[in-house]
Structures
1.
Amino acid sequence: MTPVKYLGSGWRRIGRSVKRLKKISVEKGRQINRNLLILATKSHRKSVHRVNARFAKCVA
């Protein structure tokens, strides 16, 4: 499995939102599933907005 930190060129573009959402998950005392994180980040091609929506579901 690829480490979360390295996901190719798309990582930079959505790094910010990922960091923010990770922070939220930590505040809620919950760790985002690594697989979900990878899946969500890979969808950056579709749009950052959709990525955020996926994370919202993971964290909520």
2.
Amino acid sequence: MAELPPQSKVKIREIVQLEIEVTALIQETTNISESQDELNQVNTKVKKLIQSLRRKLEELKQIGEEQDKESSHVKITEEVDKHYYNLSSMQGNFRKAITKAQISIEKYEKSQLMSAEPKNELRHRQQSKEGLAKSASSITENLMSIAKMMESQVQQSRNNTEVLSKYLLPLGVILMCEKNQHCLA
């Protein structure tokens, strides 16, 4: 069997390191049970690592295509295929881990909602008061903005009316004079 070129060995080490990182994050995803934000952060990290892994695999594939020896080319192609299979398997495991974590988060949130502890109710009320205050502030700002827009539209209409009356009144007099053939102007 042919020996792999040094540059391909380095690339394979990088790929294996990325696979280990992705696998660790998949395991971390499986253990998330309370925070959707945490799940989203891990999800983003995994997606970035998977993109990086794909780039490294493409680079390794390119190295294999550039090989003069057919045996080196075949060996590198086998490595690329093996790692693509690993990638596919990791993506499936990641989807399963996300599903499991989302179910755990939903159960946790449901139990929090159903909990009859007064402390939690107070916390939820405080959160809702803060949310209401923010909503009220936002609504007030929007109403003020709408009022300013309406005021500018009314002013623009007044200006248009003044301009029209300024020019249409004399035009009306001229038209009446032409129709009656005499003008009192």
